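Worked example (supplementary).
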Amino acid sequence: MEGRRELLKTLLGSIFMSSIPYQALARKRAVIYRIRYSNTTDRTRLVLDCKGEVDRKNIKEHLSGKVLWLDIRNTGAVRKLTRRIKSPLVSEVKVIPITSSRTKVKVTFKESHKFKIFGLRSCGSKPFRIVIDVFPEFVPISCQVRKFPKRIVVLDPGHGGKDPGAVWPPRSKHPKIREKDITLSIALKVRKYLRKSPDIKVVMTRTRDTYVPLLKRAEIAAKSCADAFVSIHADSMPNYPQWSGVTVFKASPSLFAKAQRTAKEVAKRVKLCSDVMCWSISPLLINMATTVTFAESSRLARYIVDNLKAQVNDDLINGIKDMHRNIVVLKTPGRPAVLIESGFLTNSLDRRRLTKRWYQEEIAKGIARGIEEYLNSLNKVAFVR
Ligand SMILES: [Zn+2]
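After joint prediction of all chains, the assembly is encoded as:
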């Protein structure tokens, strides 16, 4: 009898352990011992490495302005940990031990952001991790009740500062031509033309030779409640020196489909360890764009291309193309966005033209008129954001 009972206990135990081992392990006190972080184009990931597992129900979170507090029970910390975070979204993370089995975590955001918390099981050499993903607030509610009478456009001169973009000669340490200078020069000229219109407010992602991370640019667009976002670049195609001219890119629907899969990606990436993701809250909140944005981005691109053709020699305008690369600035939901490649540094004619003031003026005039016509059209058509 005793033997059978033992066997039954063992059997039950093994079934219990194999189906929900996490809950069984979580009873032991965990200890947070390290803060790590990483940045990608559309989020900042904060990671708290733990010895032992942390049960989701032991974490209470509280967002107060720009500070996110986690109060974690049954979890200690090796000592007080502080980490400054180099990110456009987060400035600091602190792990503060309250008692040996209670810890507070203070995450200081730069603005109020959306976040998602989940736990990752230890896998190979990786310990158990509490992960806090922070996303920029792409569509502030204030935009929906905006009473601002002007239409707003964000001009985004590509690259800047430590990031020169494409250079000529290629890979040169002291290049004669840098994409970042051309983009800024054209964008400032576009602003000059748009400023003549009293109904348009221009916001720039940079006005000097400074480095602005992509996420920051997308955030500037969101915060300013922009009606349109226009990013200006110059291309480089070393293998196709014959390629030349201006191309206007808009986001393709496939790009958005890709972004929508982001939530599932986390789980997929850690597939090697089965059942790795043990809990998660606030499911991915970023509301991906509706079809309205595609239609509006196409309209914006069309206005710009038509005006560029009127301004610059027709042959120099390649027209509208779908952007398939994952460009964060084209993904801002609810906001028509285009990326203009103003020419190819790898093409000798384009190279010469792009550095000339008169050519930059022509292109800028075309872009500005396109933007202006588009923004004016918004007052005529029903546009649901
Ligand atoms: Zn570029």
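Two points are worth noting when inspecting this output. Residues 357-378 form the longest helix (22 residues). DSSP finds ten helices and 19 strands in the chain.
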